[in-house]
Sequence to fold (125 residues):
Amino acid sequence: MESYSEIKKDVKSLVEETVNMGNTIHGGLGRACHDYWLDSMHVDDHGPCFVTKFMASMAILKLYIDSELEINQELKEIAFYLLARLSENDKKSISDSCIKEILRDSKDIYEFNWYVVHNCLSRNA
Fold:
């Protein structure tokens, strides 16, 4: 499985490639959502596993913030949904360094609700 850092690099690369082809950054972010099957019609049944989709959704949301764009609220809800769908084995498969990075990013993404992400990913929960 890819690490969170690798997924962030992949998302950034997809966005840059799309922008270099003449599209907007929104188009690149949309492409990243499409490539990781993060639309509400396919989030359950298609594409990569829930862990990968969750990490990709967090990476895309972080890129919205880093690009100073208004955050995609639907994607924010999908990320929470994916977080809730993670099994204990899924959580164990995420390395400690990835969890630390996700928790750092969640503070920017979820502001006042970042603790929910922290509680769900806590190794002691």
Remarks:
- The longest helix spans residues 4-20.
- The CA atoms of residues 16 and 22 lie 10 Å apart.
- The radius of gyration is 14 Å.
